[in-house]
Write a structure and sequence with these properties.
The chain is mostly beta strands. It has strands at 22-27, 33-38, 41-46, 51-57, 62-68, 74-80, 90-95, 100-106, 113-116, 120-124, 128-133, 140-145, 155-156, 164-168, 174-179, 200-202, 215-219, 225-230, 236-241, 247-251. Helices cover 0% and strands 44% of the residues. A hairpin with a 5-residue loop joins β14 (164-168) and β15 (174-179). This is Phosphatidylinositol 3,5-bisphosphate-binding protein.
Length: 252
């Protein structure tokens, strides 16, 4: 299973009627559930005991990415497959309690990865990692330049009490480690009500961003980063390069 990024199509031609043409698979923050995206929608499964918890089928397209927010009813969706349900340059916030889109983020290039924290959305583009607030009107908090990252490699700690984000640095083989909790957050708009509502935000607009005070750079590999994982408490990060012969673990 190609966890955390689009799954390549098989050339065998065999199709499972229960899970038609898998496009994506990834766990939630505590690994208690996992989500899959298919050519016709998305599904949520409980990990142990294994059980399908929910499925949504669309008549007009596929889902290429599904990011869960723990076990809540909020998901981040990106279109994918032969006929994407949503444009590949948009992140759609889905409220499964009402079965509808409640907010969207639009970017100038295709979204390659998206992850959720309790109060943040992390969106990875080919040469940028963008952090937005998870609220009624998502605000752009950070925008980090990266080296060419066509795999959409990034990871964020799953623990609710920390916010360590890791992604490729500007130089090939480097890792940037950002403590998101060390930043000074912008004040919330007084007109913004708690909770999420249908809004649109332009991903290209980085005005008013704030910058974390704690950013570390690790020269991890000689070749480009191909995979990253961070522990739930954010204390450890594991990395692999395109060469594929070593996994290195660092104390953040």
């Amino acid at each position: 299973m190609n966890v955390g990024r689009p799954v390549p199509r098989s050339g065998s031609g065999a199709q499972d009627s229960y899970a038609p043409e898998l496009l994506y698979a990834n766990f939630n923050q505590d690994y208690g559930c996992f989500a899959i995206g298919t050519q016709t929608g998305f599904r949520i499964f409980n990990s142990d005991p294994y059980k399908e918890k929910m499925r949504r089928e669309f008549k007009d397209g596929g889902i290429g990415m599904v990011a869960m927010l723990y076990r809540s009813n909020y998901l981040a969706l990106v279109g994918g497959g032969r006929n994407p349900r949503f444009p590949p340059n948009k992140v759609m916030l889905w409220d499964d309690a009402s079965s509808k889109i409640i907010a969207e983020l639009e970017f100038r290039s295709d979204v390659l990865n998206v992850q959720l924290q309790r109060d943040r959305i992390v969106v990875v583009l080919r040469n940028k990692c963008i952090v937005c607030s998870l609220e009624a009107k998502p605000r752009h908090l950070h925008a980090f330049e990266t080296s060419d990252n066509d795999r959409g490699v990034a990871a964020v700690s799953g623990g609710s009490e920390n916010g360590v984000l890791v992604f490729p640095g500007r130089q090939k083989g480097h890792i940037q480690i950002v403590d998101l909790h060390s930043c000074i957050n912008l004040p919330t708009d007084a007109n913004t009500r708690p909770g999420l509502s249908r809004t649109r935000s332009r991903g290209s607009d980085t005005q008013g961003t704030v910058h974390p005070t704690n950013i570390n750079i690790i020269a991890a590999h000689a070749t480009a980063i191909s995979a990253l994982a961070v522990s739930s408490d954010g204390s450890m990060v594991a990395s692999a390069s395109e060469k594929g012969t070593l996994i290195r673990v660092f104390d953040t």
